[in-house]
Design a protein that fits this description.
With 206 residues, the protein is mainly alpha-helical. The protein is built from 8 helices and no strands.
Length: 206
């Protein structure tokens, strides 16, 4: 493996570790009821926790999947990529906090604010993904960072998908001010959208 391959491998491996830790932290919100509690009633009362856990698990899992797909297109690493990837991971590790906030306050007076913060974190993740992608796919760079040219169909498809995702996450953030549950459903739907396998296209060798 050449130096460029080692660099991209190191960045991806470190990022994988961050995603794994963030996903694992989500389970800490799932509480076991005491033996004296009415088990069925307790479990029913925890539905906001389960909804927030499932949404965040799906979102983080799909984010990791798309991060992996993205690094399949990267031929070398530069300083800007490291900064954008670091910003993305910074927001990623805050999602367990946003999930805890949402599951604890969704049914209480602070539910709207909790949903707004959670949706804002999701929007920040989408913004960081777009920033990373725009840095990678910049036409102004003398030596490209991607294995494919900016005009390649797969590059263009990713560009469109990320822009659509950013717009929909922004819409979900605004929706959280009106209907927190509907905002959660939109975000879960976005996770399903980005989970769809991309059309397989032949890429040039790195």
């Amino acid at each position: 493996m050449d130096a460029a391959g080692r660099d991209t491998g190191r960045v991806e491996a470190f990022s994988d570790g961050v995603y794994a830790i963030a996903i694992t932290l989500l389970v800490l919100d799932l509480k076991v009821p005491p033996a004296s509690a009415d088990l069925a009633a307790f479990l029913r009362g925890q539905w906001p926790t389960y909804a927030a856990f499932l949404t965040s698990f799906l979102v983080l899992g799909i984010m990791w999947l798309n991060h992996h797909r993205l690094f399949r297109l990267i031929r070398r690493v530069d300083h800007g990529l490291l900064l954008w990837n670091g910003a993305l991971l910074l927001v990623t590790v805050t999602l367990p906090f946003g999930t805890s906030l949402l599951s604890e306050h969704l049914r209480h007076p602070g539910g709207h604010l909790a949903a707004e913060i959670y949706s804002g974190l999701m929007l920040a993740c989408a913004a960081c993904y777009n920033g990373l992608w725009l840095h990678l796919a910049s036409r102004r760079r003398k030596e490209r960072l991607l294995v494919a040219a900016c005009g390649h169909p797969e590059v263009q498809a990713i560009h469109r998908a990320y822009l659509v995702g950013l717009g929909l996450y922004a819409a979900a953030f605004l929706l959280a001010f009106v209907n927190p549950l509907l905002a959660l459903l939109v975000q879960a739907g976005l996770a399903a959208y980005f989970a769809l396998p991309p059309k397989s296209l032949e890429l040039p060798a790195a």
